[in-house]
Structure formats: structure tokens, C-alpha cells
Amino acid sequence: RDKVICWNTAGDDYDGLVEGSEKQTYKVHVDKNHPRKSTCTCPYAQEHRVICKHMLAIYFSAEPKVLSDFLEEVDRYEVK
Can you spell out the DSSP letters for 4-53? Predict the structure, then answer.
């Protein structure tokens, strides 16, 4: 999440900019209702039409409770 430069709400969706690992900036759109319609300008998302780490960064920045719940679930799973 510390790579998220900015984001804003567009209805139920999120748009933002995320800094890539090589200092590139990617434009990201997250469609909460139709995740497969989410987009990112990174090469991985464009080549594979998948949900990439930049989309997750925007989503978790916009929905910190979801991130917290996810991390708690991971912790519970790793204890087993």
C-alpha cells in the first residue's frame, strides 16, 4: 500500500496511481462489482488480463477493513 500515490472513489469503483517496482507509475481502475473489468497499465495485467498487485494495492488502500480481515485470516491459516 505504500506504493499507492493517490486514489479516489468513482461510485463503487476506485481509480488511482501506483508506483511500480522499477519506479514506473501505473494507472489503475478497480471495478468492485465486476473485478475482471478492472484495469491496470502494467505489462502483467495488460498481457494476462488478470487482477494484478497494483489493483490490490488500490483496493486495500480504499478498503482498510478488508485488508485487516484478510491479514487476520492469513494469520489463522498459518497457525494450523
Answer: EEEEEEETTEEEEEEE-TTS-EEEEEE-SS-GGG-EE-SHHHHHH-S--H
- The pTM (predicted TM-score) of the whole model is 0.86
**What cell was used for 11?**
461510485
**Cα–Cα distance measured from residue 62 to residue 44, given in angstroms and rounded to the nearest whole number:** 22
pLDDT tens column, 13-62 = 999 999 998 889 999 999 999 999 999 999 999 888 899 999 999 999 99
Handedness of CA 64, 66, 71, 76 (dihedral sign): positive
